[in-house]
């Protein structure tokens, strides 16, 4: 009969050894002892992998270095302490750098979707908005115009015809205007991508305008003129609305950012040199973990799932 081992106790032990190995006071015997400890059981190996992943994600932060400098006597329950410090450091760093903190506008927005949630919204004029996961928007209709403000995320718009009232989506200080058309607007941070599957839209940003017909896409950054239009397959516009994610030679960084919409917490690529690696595949929106598993099997990546953070690291 095998005794049940508390995973947190094993993580305590693993982190205590890892911190000592990073302290500059470790000997060759200490390194050997850690290797032997990891080989004692699968539970020990799992605790080591999780602890190494967490440490690797934030070892460079000041809080981590302060933790290393503490004497063992002051590092009581190291796993609990390190997880608290590590998660706070990682979450702050990743959210701020990636612009993933939900805007204050979410507090008073008309419509908000959470991670993994999609929603269909029917507007008073008969237009339909399909909201992707992790999206925040407000609706403002008047006698002269139909306005949508997209604060964050992605939405597919199917616009009812009304020549007397233009339909305008405002995102990142730019406008996307359409009359009787179907188009997708994706805002991530200060960058907005627009894809048109039916009709024509006009983009306005940075004092410049661009007419975009069906089968074309463009992008702009806050306060910058739109990029020239480029061809897109209309069948692949907003495939998320049909439950599919289709990637054709897309950078890994973009793929992970897309999967991040559907996974609670944050998906974080620890080695940015891998972000440009090209990825192709078709995945189910409702099973993002399966997509991560495929990436781990087919790419030189290791996926570590921690509370609130999914770490994507290069394989050793």
Automatic annotation (TrEMBL):
Entry annotated with the keyword Mitochondrion: no
Domain FecR N-terminal: 12-54
Transmembrane segments: 81-101
Domain FecR protein as annotated: residue spans: 112-201
InterPro entries: FecR, FecR_N, Ferrdict_sens_TM
Keyword Membrane in record: yes
Keywords: Membrane, Transmembrane, Transmembrane helix
Superkingdom assignment: Bacteria
Name of this chain's protein: Iron dicitrate transport regulator FecR
Organism: Pseudomonas hunanensis
Phylogenetic classification of the source organism: Bacteria, Pseudomonadati, Pseudomonadota, Gammaproteobacteria, Pseudomonadales
């Amino acid at each position: 009969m095998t005794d049940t081992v508390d995973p947190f106790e094993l993580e305590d032990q693993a982190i205590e050894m890892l911190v000592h190995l990073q302290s500059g006071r470790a000997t060759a015997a200490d390194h050997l002892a850690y290797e032997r400890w990891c080989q004692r059981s699968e539970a020990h190996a799992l605790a080591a992998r999780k602890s190494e992943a967490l440490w690797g994600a934030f070892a460079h932060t000041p809080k981590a270095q302060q933790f290393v400098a503490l004497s063992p006597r002051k590092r009581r329950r190291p796993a609990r302490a390190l997880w608290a410090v590590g998660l706070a450091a990682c979450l702050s760093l990743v959210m701020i750098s990636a612009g993933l903190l939900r805007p204050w506008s979410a507090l008073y927005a008309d419509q908000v979707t959470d991670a993994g949630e999609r929603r269909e919204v029917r507007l008073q004029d008969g237009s339909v908005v399909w909201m992707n996961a992790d999206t925040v928007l407000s609706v403002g209709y008047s006698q002269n115009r139909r306005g949508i403000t997209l604060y964050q995320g992605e939405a597919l718009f199917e616009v009812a015809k009304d020549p007397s009232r233009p339909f305008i989506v405002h995102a990142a200080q730019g406008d996307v205007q359409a009359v009787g058309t179907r188009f997708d607007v994706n805002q991530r941070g200060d960058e907005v991508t627009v894809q048109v599957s039916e009709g024509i839209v006009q983009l306005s940003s940075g004092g410049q305008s661009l007419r975009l017909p069906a089968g074309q896409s463009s992008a702009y950054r806050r306060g910058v003129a739109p990029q020239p239009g480029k061809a897109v397959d209309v069948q692949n516009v907003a495939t998320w609305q049909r439950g599919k994610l289709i990637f054709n030679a897309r950078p890994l960084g973009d793929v992970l950012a897309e999967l991040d919409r559907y996974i609670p917490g944050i998906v974080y690529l620890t080695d940015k040199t891998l972000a440009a690696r090209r990825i192709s595949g078709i995945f189910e929106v409702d099973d993002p973990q399966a997509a991560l598993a495929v990436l781990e099997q087919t790419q030189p990546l290791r996926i570590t799932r921690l509370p609130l953070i999914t770490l994507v690291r290069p394989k050793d």
